[in-house]
Structures are given as C-alpha cells and as structure tokens.
C-alpha cells in the first residue's frame, strides 16, 4: 500500500524527472562535488547554498571516496561536476582524467578550483581544457600594487582585482562594484585558443612566483597575461570554469570587506559572491544558452518547403532562436543574426529581422548561379553557445520551357525566317509551273 | 553451275544469292552478338568499368522520370557543391536508345530490368554495326566485299573491347551510327537521291546525339568532297550528298543540348562550312560553263575567280578573326591533342592522365586489329583499281583514322571499321582473283565465264564503270549483285564488254599458286578468328569492378569494389559526401548513391585539382580542404596487398600534377627522389607525409609484418604511423578499397602541455592561422 502511495505521488513528479533528462533542457540539475576535506562543505557553504537555492542537487563526496563514479549503466549520474580538491593526486572509484574529459566531451559542465600546490592531476585536467597553470607548484600570484589592503599579511598575495571580462552574458547585467579577492596560482592561456576566455585577469603589475623564496629568475608569468579565472566553452557547448584559487569561493572571502591598495573606497563586502554566483549561472547554462529550431524556407508566396530552388527564385527564410533562462526558453532578441546562402563562399549574406518573439526571418532572391547551396547561420557571440545551422538545398538552372518563348528583340529574325520560307515556296511554285 | 542463259535461271540464281546473303548476314549478326557475351558467361550480367555506370544511372533516371525530366536534370549528387546539369552536358543518344528499347520491351510485356537492357545494348548494336558495314562496303566494292567486311567487323577485337555485354558506353551505339552515316553518304553519292541525303542528315543527327566523335564525320566528309572537287570529280551527286548534310546536319546537331551553338562556333565545324562555300563556287562554275560558249566561259572564269577570291578572302578573314578571338583558338583541348599529339601532355594533365588518351604502342595494333593490319594495304590497292568516288572515300577514311589512332588509343575504335572495310575489300578481291584463276584453268568453264562477263555492264548513274564490271562478274560466281544492278543488267544484257574480258585474262594466276594462296588466306582468316575469340574471351571481357586472378591454388575473385560501395550505401547518411579520385566518382554515385566531389566527367579542372591537392597535402591541410567541401568520407583504392596495379598510389603523380597545375604550392619534384617516384625508405618526406600515402598504407604493416607492397615490389618507407584527422572506418576484404572518415574537430583545445604530446596540441592550436593559407577555397 505504501509502495502504491509512493508510486502515485511520483506520477505527478514524472514530468519534472523527465525534463531533467531532456536534451532540450540544458540546465545541470545534479552536481557532484568532490572535496579534499568535508570541512570545505561548511567553509564554502555560501557558494554551495546559492547553487542549492537555484535548484541544484549537490552531492558532496570526498575525492578519494572509492565509491564515486560519474556514470552507471552507460548513463551519466550527474549533469555537472565541481572539483574543489586541488591537492588530490588520484580520484577514488572509477573517476580519472579520461573519465572527466569524457564527461566534458559528452556535454557536461565542470568547475575546477586549483590552488598553490595543485596536484598534477588537476593541472592535467586544466591543460586538457586549454589552461596552463604556473609550472612552479608553490607559485602564487603576487601583486605589489593592486593587492587587497588587510591588517595581517604583507606578502601581497591576496589580490583584489576588478579586471573582468566585459560581457553581460557571462557576468550578468548588474555591474560588480567591489573588487574580487583572489589568492592562489595564476595560469596562462594560449592566445590562439579561441575556446577559452579570461574572465578575471591580473593587473599589469602582477607576477607569479613563490613568495617564500627569493626571486632569482624573471618570473615566467607576468602582468595581465596572467589569468586568475578562466572559462572554457567547448565545441559541444560544455562549459568549464577554472579558477586558480579555491579560497575565493570560501565564506571568508565572500564576506570580508575589501579595499584595493591605492584606492580610497572601502567596500563592505568583496565582489566574490556576486562574481562567482553569476559565473556559476553561466557555467551551468542558466544564461547564454541558445537554441535554434524550426528552420524554414519556402518560395515567396508559398508555404511548403521545396526540394529544389530555381535560380532567381524569391524565397523566404525563417528560424526561431530561444535562450534558456534557467527555467524556461525565452525568445532571444538581437539584431545581428545573419543568414548566408552559401556555396563554397556566401552568395547572399543578410541580417535577419526579428519579431522579438524569437522568430527571425528574411527574404531574398536566389542568385543566378546553380549548385548545391546551404542556408547557414553561424552565430558565435561572446558568452553565448555557438549556433551553427546549415541546411542543404540545391538550386537548379532554368528548365527548357522556362525561358521566354518569344523575345521581342528577336521578331526581326522570326520575320526573316518566315518570309524566307514563304518566298522560297512561291519561288519554287513559280519556277516549276511558269512554263 | 549458274550457266543458264535464260532470264528465268538468272533470276533464280539471284534469288538464291539473295536468300543466301540474307542468312549470312543473319549469322553475322548472331556472331557479333554472341561473341560479346563472354563477359556475361564468365562473370555476370553486370555493368562494366566507370563511364557505363554513369550511363546506367542516367538511363535509370530516364526510364523513371521521362524524357523531359531527363532533359532538365540537374544532378546535385555529383560535383558537390557545384552540381552538374546532366541534360545539357551528356550525349543523350545511348541513353535514349536504351530507354526506347526498354519501353518497347515493356510495352510488349517483356519485363526486362533497365540493367539487362543496358548490358545488352552494346552487343545488339554491334550486330547493327556489322550490317551497316555490309551496306557500306557493298556500296563501295559490291556484296562480296560487303559480307567479308561485315564478318570481320563482327569480331574485330578493337570494337569488341568497347562493346562487350555490359560495356554500356557511347561508343557502343556510336560506331554503328558512324558506319551507317558513311553508308548513307556513299549511297547518296552513288545514287544522287535527295531521299538518301535526308536520311544521311538524320543518321548524322543520331551520331551527334551519341558521341563527341561526330566531329570526325563532319571533317572527313568535307575532306572527301574537297578531294573529289580537286581531282575533278565534281558532280551534281556530290552536291546532293554534301550540301543537304551540312545544312540539315548542322541544324539538327545544334538541337542536341550538349552541342548547341558549338555546331556553328567551334573550329571543328569550320571545315565543313568552308567546303560548303567551295562546293557552291564550283557548282556555279560548272553551271556557267554549261550555259556559256567556251569563249564567253573564259571571260566568265576571270570574273568568277576574281569575285570568288575576294569572297574567300573575306570569309577567311572573318573566320580567322573569330578563331583568334577565342582563348583556345576555338579548339577544345581534346581536339587540339589530336592535331598536336604532344599538346595534351604539355598543357592539360587531366587529359593526359587518362590512359586511353595516350598514344598506342605497336603491339596494341596487333592486339586490336590483328591480321587486318596486313590486309589494309592490299585493300587500299584494291580501292585504287579503279578509283571511284566511293572507294576514294574509304581510302581517305582509313588514312585519317590511322593518323588519329596513332594519337589516342581510344580512337583505335574509329580505325577498326575502316580496317575491316579495307580488309574485306582485299580479301574479297583476292578470293575473286584466285577463284577466277582456278575456274579458268578448270576444263569446260571458259566459255561460260565469258558469258557471265557479258551479263555485267556499266552502271551509268553509279559511275562504277569498268571496275564494277570485273567485280560484278566475279560476284556472279558467289554472290549476286544488288537489286538495282540486276535491273541494269537486264537492260544491257546484250552488250558484252570486250575490255572486261581482256582484263580478266590478264589477271589469271597459275592454278597451283591460286590453290595455295586460297589455303593461306583461309589460314589467315582462321588465325584472325582464333585471335578474336581469345581476345573476346580473355582480354576484353573483364568488367573491372570484379577482378579475378589465377594462382597455383585456383581462381581468386576480388569483389572489393562492390563490397566497399555497398558498405557506403548501408552505413552512411544519404547526404554524406564521399571524396575520392575522380575515377571512382561515377561508380560511387551509381552504386553507393552518395554525393561525390569529382567524377569521371572531368569538366571542372579546378575542382579536380582541389581533390588532387588534398590527396597530396599533409593530413591536416587535407582535412581543411575536405572539411571546407563538407566531405565526410574519403575513399582510396589500394592494390599493394593483392598486387592490383591501377590503384591510387600509381595514379598519385597525376593528382600531384593536376593539383599543382592550379595550386602552385604542390610541386611535383617534392614527391620525387632524383626524378624517381618511389614509396620505399628512399622516398621524400613530402611523399611519406602526404594524405594519399598515409591513407593507403595505414596499418599496412599489420598484414605481413614487413609492409611489402606487391605492386611496387618494395617495402614501404614509413610503416608505423597514426592518423590524427582521419579514422579508418572500413577496409575491404583484400584491402583494395579503404574508406576513412574525417574526424570532427576536437571538442577542446589543449593547453601548451609541457609534459607530453606538445606537438599535437601546438598544431591544433595554430589551425586558424593556417586555414587562410593552405585552403584553396579561402
């Protein structure tokens, strides 16, 4: 009886359960958090609570727990993974480097927090994602000009940075007033790597070295080439957040007041909470996730999609683009979505106009070239998932009976031909019968 | 003995001859058809080689969608992404012929499949071609020569090579059309009938529909007309044979979409127009000569010559200007390589790369026309004794076709009918001489033969004066003259020709010599038959998509091509694009039904060069090129395991040349070590790193541990390597076809990775910058 009750109560929940499995729903709902030490659960509780309050189901495990695993029976158990275990050399259970990379490559999201003395494993995961931590394991980012003023420390490794990426999609539309506190290892990005973005970078005066030892060689990482927090959006739109500092997620940093060296203003609260909350929204696809659907095209004045166009046909093209808001698909509004009519190079390139309800449309004339064309929408904007739609459609030349039958310019020739025929006929008749 | 002098007896004899030659022709048709069935018996009823697959696919489309859709067919599955307008770029004759056959058979409730009809089209038309040869040779030298020529053509190896069952190509019907057009031309020339002239134009139209080789006709006939005019053989018959052909023929030819305005714009056709003008001038001269007194005529000649010169100069100036204004001087590459055999290899690698466009070797003459090569000179001599309009035509035909066959192997096919006609004439003439010699020396036949001689006489209109007599005479012994001749003979039956008798006496040979000569000729013929049957059974019947080889442990069948194509059709998406060298394009579209980038219709050199460049590039650059063309799969043909010599590695230098011709960063010397093409350890790094090498030899070392290539007879240079941008998805049983899939771009881009695999990551990360340079499409 009780089983039946449970079953009955589960039935209304079914839609919710199924939506969490749906591909249409990009939001990660179940997140595995791997920790070095379960104490982190309370020392970083503000960050975790903000995730939980947004509906995430966090599963805290020690990184070396022998029972952990990312998937079972070919199905992933989690939609996201948070690695707050900078010193772990080996994960427990079935998780290893390859498993994590495969997790990402199958479209799941990842947050990595490293720290000074980060393990090779964490470094290797970061490298595979396109981020290179400072090779010196004991190195910290040091900045003697934009450090956070504090009472206790004097080695200037606690940095207050406000050099954010300028993107409302990634960091939210609300401006982050207070600088972000950071204490940890710096990393560099390959400038030609287009998938990885520097979200928080160090100031030009920063450098990366071991504060305890004397600086003998020039530091390998200096200035604003140092990235403190980076994000990666893989080609399959899986998102990764990589931070060089675990402590920036901690309650202590979230709550501490901050004053940047040389700045008169003293902020009541550091920008960490806002910064990281907004960033986690982005990483878990609550913002900046687009989808395109209902790509349609047809001849002007018709409704059905043809299998082939003719050169110089007038056609109409439409596509619907929506953005995931964390709870539902909202119409995406922009004026820079373009469609290409493409055969080795774009023959037509048009901006799509939108009705602000998610639908984008345009009309154009097929060029006077036949071949196999594609309708292409390549929409890649900072912070948004990349939209890459292509739909193949052949364009044929005129049929033999689609040309004009009589051309006015040719009437003299018609006249000539027919008068010639008549003349020849009369001549023959006269010639044959005139005797 | 047909010695009876009564008209009744003669008629009976003629009727008997008629029936006999009818049955002989029927048997020749059966012979021509059945000798081409070896491929079906030894292999199976299947379409052969490359081009026939395209024709087959087009025929399928035609039978399914009807003629208008075929005419307007835009094929989006070849030449991706350019597509190809099939209706406007194909010679429709063959397809329409087979389609018509199919419709007729189906309307008679004979439910043959399209494939069966296509397979047997060529044998059927070779029977027609031998009958057409009979008609043509009969017009030239009488029925005896006609039958001999027909039987020779029915089994000439050169023609068999292009018309075995399954070889469903344009030439299959075009040779019939060619011979038939020539027959109608000669027929018109002999009769001066406008009816035959019209038929001639229609036959020419069929030829234009069928094959690009129609330009041979439209140049040969004007040459002959010019020859006749120059040698003073102008007659109204010549005018009737030529003028309607040019006017009607050109009008009809321009109706064929693939020819269109070429019929009046390209240089190949200019000769005919020039001769058209000349024949009118000559006709005018003859007319004026007829109505004027000799004195007045001399005055007129000066007038006409001066005016004619002016007109000619003007026309020539216009022609020269027209020709000079076009980039290739109005000649297409293939035609230019006919005139200058070195043209193609110098300037157009894509034409030179086709083996059938190469000049033939001497043995191939012996292989393809065998003893005919020795009989042809005799035939030419026979044609000169005496020379008529018709025999001068066949002499001109053999001379020009010998030249053309020396330029391109493929045109051996045009030579074959000419050689058969000539040999038929030669054999028939020599049999005539020998049998007559024997007959004259046999006791008791002298008188009769003289009476026979009296039967024949001049055929005024046909202008076959003395020649015809002697030959008619001999025909009376074996064959019978044509219907028309018989009528004439009845009229002139009482006019014995003294001259003929004298001539005949002079040609008598010793009895023993004649017997031996006849025996030798029969031996020669037997040798020809044996060789032809061998060629049909062994050399020319392989369908080339199924290969066989005999070894000590029996027969091996290599059906790898069809294995690969069916893998493609079952395991890939319908819209996937498959890249391969162009040789396999037609087969891929027809058998696997997948979109290809280039195919055997080599109309776009740049596109082929792009594929050639990709095959000669290192893996990553090749990936870029293929990706920009939306290619999903790459197919290579590899013969190194089983020793199949015409694989992609052997064709590779042509890919380099064709690619380098358009994209100069591909240089042929980079692939050669000291001018030698090699794939062993001495090969250049460029060669060992190019895509073709890698795709051919990937995992090859796993087969025998040494990676010994049985075609190149060497161990390969680089044995152990990995593919980074391609993955092997299918390799056929004998490794003859290997299919690779393009790997998708990496999901993530690695960092600098100080520890390991630094190479791989740095190459991936610099991808963007290199895209600009190496990819020819950007």
UniProtKB/TrEMBL annotation, chain A:
A Pfam family reported for this protein in Swiss-Prot or TrEMBL: OST48_MD
Location of the OST48 middle domain: 297-435
Entry keywords, A to Z: Endoplasmic reticulum, Membrane, Signal, Transmembrane, Transmembrane helix
OST48 N-terminal domain location: 30-283
Compartments in which it is found: Endoplasmic reticulum membrane; Membrane
Claim: Mitochondrion is one of the keywords in the record: no
Primary localization class, coarse: endoplasmic reticulum
Bilayer-spanning residue ranges: 411-433
Secretion signal, residue range per the UniProt entry: 1-20
GO process annotations (BP): protein N-linked glycosylation via asparagine
GO cellular component: oligosaccharyltransferase complex
Keyword flag Cell wall biogenesis/degradation: no
Pathway annotation from the record: Protein modification; protein glycosylation
Membrane topology term: Single-pass type I membrane protein
Domain of life per record: Eukaryota
Function comment: Subunit of the oligosaccharyl transferase (OST) complex that catalyzes the initial transfer of a defined glycan (Glc(3)Man(9)GlcNAc(2) in eukaryotes) from the lipid carrier dolichol-pyrophosphate to an asparagine residue within an Asn-X-Ser/Thr consensus motif in nascent polypeptide chains, the first step in protein N-glycosylation. N-glycosylation occurs cotranslationally and the complex associates with the Sec61 complex at the channel-forming translocon complex that mediates protein translocation across the endoplasmic reticulum (ER).
Record family assignment: Belongs to the DDOST 48 kDa subunit family.
Assembly and interaction partners: Component of the oligosaccharyltransferase (OST) complex.
Name the record gives this protein: Dolichyl-diphosphooligosaccharide--protein glycosyltransferase 48 kDa subunit
Organism: Lithocarpus litseifolius
From TrEMBL, chain B:
EC number(s) recorded for this UniProt protein: 2.4.99.18
Comp. bias regions, Basic and acidic residues: 767-778
Positions of transmembrane segments: 12-35, 85-105, 117-136, 142-160, 172-197, 203-227, 239-264, 270-288, 300-324, 365-384, 391-409, 415-434, 506-530
Domain Oligosaccharyl transferase STT3 N-terminal as annotated: residue spans: 19-422
Biased composition (Basic residues): 747-758
Cofactor dependency: Mn(2+); Mg(2+)
Catalysed reactions, semicolon-separated: a di-trans,poly-cis-dolichyl diphosphooligosaccharide + L-asparaginyl-[protein] = N(4)-(oligosaccharide-(1->4)-N-acetyl-beta-D-glucosaminyl-(1->4)-N-acetyl-beta-D-glucosaminyl)-L-asparaginyl-[protein] + a di-trans,poly-cis-dolichyl diphosphate + H(+)
UniProt cross-references to InterPro entries, sorted A to Z: Oligo_trans_STT3 (IPR003674), STT3_N (IPR048307)
GO cellular component: endoplasmic reticulum membrane
Localization in the cell: Endoplasmic reticulum membrane
Membrane topology category: Multi-pass membrane protein
Keyword entries, A-Z: Endoplasmic reticulum, Glycoprotein, Glycosyltransferase, Magnesium, Manganese, Membrane, Metal-binding, Transferase, Transmembrane, Transmembrane helix
Domain of life: Eukaryota
Subunit structure: Component of the oligosaccharyltransferase (OST) complex.
PANTHER family listed in its UniProt record: DOLICHYL-DIPHOSPHOOLIGOSACCHARIDE--PROTEIN GLYCOSYLTRANSFERASE SUBUNIT, DOLICHYL-DIPHOSPHOOLIGOSACCHARIDE--PROTEIN GLYCOSYLTRANSFERASE SUBUNIT STT3A
Family: Belongs to the STT3 family.
Protein name as annotated: dolichyl-diphosphooligosaccharide--protein glycotransferase
Originating organism: Lithocarpus litseifolius
